[in-house]
Structure formats: C-alpha cells, structure tokens
Amino acid sequence: MSDILYLFNPWWEHREFFTGTRRDRYLEQLSSNISNKQAILIVGSRRVGKTVLLHQLIRQLLDQKVKPETLIYLPLDHPSLGGKKILELVEEIRTVHGLKRGEKLYLFLDEVQFSPTWEQEAKAIIDFENIKLFISGSASTKILSKGAFLTGRTLTFKIEPFDFKEFVAYHGGTGKLDSAFKNGLFKKYLEVGGYPEYVVSQNPIYFSDLITNVVNKDITTLFPVNNSALLSQLLSLLADRAGSQTSLTKLGKILDLTKDTIKDYVYYLSSTFLVTELGKFSSSRNSTIYSPKKYYLLDTGLLFNLTGRLNFGAAAENIVFHKLLSESKKLGFYFEDQKELDFVVDDLAVEVKYELSDMGWEKLASQIKKIPENKFKKIVVLTTDVRKNEVVGGVKVEFKSLVDFLLDTGSLLKDT
C-alpha cells in the first residue's frame, strides 16, 4: 500500500505533478478558507477540473513551505483504495512519515461518492483531528450528503467548465482586446465549450467517453438505473431541445417510459450537472410547477457533440443561462399568450439573439409590443449585432454586446 500512496503523492519525493491551467476565480475563494475549521467540499461535473484544482491547491501550499509529507491526496475511485477506511489510510501515512498525531495535515479526498462511509469518517476528522479536509465529488451536495453528519461542517464550492473569460485568457487574450479577436474566439467557444481537457486536446472521442463515464460510473453508483442506454438517449433528446420548452410526457412517449421515470432520469442527469432545469416565470406557484420546463446543458461543446450540429443561437443562449444563474437563483423564462422571452430576473427580461437581422428585430419588436407595458422595468437584448436602444410599446429595450457581456465581470442585475 505504501508504494501506491507514493504514486498518488509525488511531492513526497519532490517529483513534479500536473497542475494544468490556473483557475484563479476558484483558487482565490478556496485559499481564503484554508484556515477555517470547516471542510471544503468541491462539487462539479466529471472532468470539469476538480482533481486539477486540488493539485493546484497542493502546489500553492508547497510554495508556502508546507511540509510535503503533510499533504495527502487520496483518489477514492481508484481500485486499490476500494474498501479501505479513510482514517486507516491516514494512520498508515502518519506511520510511514513518522508524523505525530497532533501535527497539522491537509487531506484531499477525491471522488468521495465511491466511498460508502466518507461522511461519517469526514465528521470524525473534522471534529477530532488536526486535519484540514478538502473533498471533491461528481454529484450535487444533496446527493453526496445522504445523512446529516456534516451539517454546518462544510463550505461548498461548485466548479464549472471554463467560462468565456477563462477561454479567452487561455488563448492569450489579456488587456484590451480587438473585436475581431474576441468575436473569432467566441465562435470557437460556442463550438468547443469549456471542459479544460477538451479545450486543450479536442479529442473527437472525448465527449462520448465523458458521457459513458458519467452515466455508467457516476449515475449507476448513486441511483437505481435499469437501462443506462435510455438515460443516454434522454440526454441526447434534451440536447436537441436545449432552450426550448419541453414536455416530459412527450419524451416518455418517444422512449417508451413513464413520465415518472423520465422525471427521475432528468433528476439523475441534473444531479451530476450535465443538465439544468429552468422553470417558467410566474406569480402563480402552480403555473411555475406544472408548466413545461426548459433544459440547458452544462457546456456548449457537449451540446454540439450530442446534436451533431452547431446552432449558434441555442449555444449562445445556453452560455448566457449559466452566467445569469451564477448571478441570481431567481431565474425563469417568460411565456404568456404565445409570447416568449428567454430569461427573467426580477423585473428584468433578457433575450439572446446571436445575430439580429432587421427582419428578426421587427419580429421581436412586434412580440414585445404585445407584452403588458408594466411587466418589466426593461428588456435587455444580448446580440453580436448591437443596435441603438429603443422604446417599444412603452418598454425600454436596451441592446448589449453579447461578447462583452460574457467577458465583463459586472452583472446585468447591477445595471438596473
């Protein structure tokens, strides 16, 4: 066992290890909480960069002169650790390095969903050991924490693929950027997406392998799935309908499954972050609950891979959805009397149009005129074809650059 532990922890022998592209927007948050007693729980889709982020934290601690042997990384999905108790492994490492029990340790547990007792052991570590605990998992906190063992004992951080700003930085974009450079990279981002490994390699089998692992490894470990092939088919159907109102009943008929089974399968996909549901904006709770929902995929590269075609409009809307969701949980879409707007946040409506021709604007303006005048404070149209602001049917319509909005650290919500 000692040999495999050294393999997982190359810094013990002062060997180099892979740390990938720095994720500063996460590292800053994580670093500011290292001195806290609470465990840091990092969640996110498989291959979104959680393991690399843990290694970046380890590199940072090494640079701060923390003793290498006190930094312990354990990938709990590795076969050699199957059935091993976490606390027993920690004691073995203490023995190997001659560490005293009271000496400060930093323990990094990767893919904890593969350890059936991780919650109980984490509680014991937090309560009784001088160990700073970092935990990662490829499922939502609700699914990972099946008991109440860690209530009040963790700080949770959700890790996502590269956003457009990180994508631009990876390609050397810093400071004031040329419009042609930004727009060219944006088209590439719509196609490639932000999964870090795929941004680097663009391996044609990357996404099929990713889906296979999430469905056949993560989901089947966490949930009772009778037919994983149908789950993959459902994911493809949701990709085809990304950003459109979708009936679970109709999906059930296509796959010959009950609505309840489809609902369960959608929950499994959302719990592993591949899909996110968006409800209708309404003052009526019943309308919000029972109206058809929209579904967005985590990443546009994944979307492109599943659909086999690049729909710039759907991909742009998918990206804006995730940015708005990061700014406000009170997000919905507007649909009344056959009139629809992509997103609503409080009294602000947002419409995403990758390109907006004169004819497209006339159609959108005609729809806006039919929306009650006092329904929204204003409507923001995000597009690559920016126009002058207008007032339509008594409502202020403000045009913003889609690309600049995604690069800006500011928020639409702060501007209202």
Question: Would you write up a description of this structure?
Answer:
β2, α4 (86-97) and β3 form a beta-alpha-beta unit. The protein is built from 18 helices and 14 strands. It starts with a helix and ends in a 9-residue tail after the last helix. It has 416 residues and is α/β, with parallel strands linked by helices. Helices cover 44% and strands 18% of the residues. α8 crosses α15 (300-307).
Short structural summary:
The chain is of the alpha/beta class and 416 residues long. It has helices at 2-8, 24-31, 50-63, 86-97, 118-128, 141-144, 164-170, 179-192, 196-201, 206-222, 228-240, 248-255, 259-271, 285-290, 300-307, 312-327, 358-369, 402-407, and strands at 39-43, 71-75, 105-110, 131-137, 154-158, 245-246, 275-278, 293-297, 331-336, 339-345, 348-353, 378-383, 390-392, 395-401.
Which bin fits the share of residues in helices?
40-55%
The whole-angstrom Rg is 23 Å
Number of strands: 14
The mean pLDDT is 92
Poorly predicted ranges (pLDDT <50, ≥5 residues)?
A: none
Number of helical segments with 4 or more residues? 18
Sheet with most strands? 6 strands, mixed
Structural class: alpha/beta
Relative strand content: 15-25%
* Amino- and carboxy-terminal Cα gap: 59 Å
Please write out the topology.
Layout: H1 2-8, H2 24-31, E1 39-43, H3 50-63, E2 71-75, H4 86-97, E3 105-110, H5 118-128, E4 131-137, H6 141-144, E5 154-158, H7 164-170, H8 179-192, H9 196-201, H10 206-222, H11 228-240, E6 245-246, H12 248-255, H13 259-271, E7 275-278, H14 285-290, E8 293-297, H15 300-307, H16 312-327, E9 331-336, E10 339-345, E11 348-353, H17 358-369, E12 378-383, E13 390-392, E14 395-401, H18 402-407
Parallel strand pairs: 1-4, 1-5, 2-3, 3-4, 11-12, 12-14
Antiparallel strand pairs: 6-8, 7-8, 9-10, 10-11, 13-14
Helix pairs in contact: 8-15, 11-15, 12-13
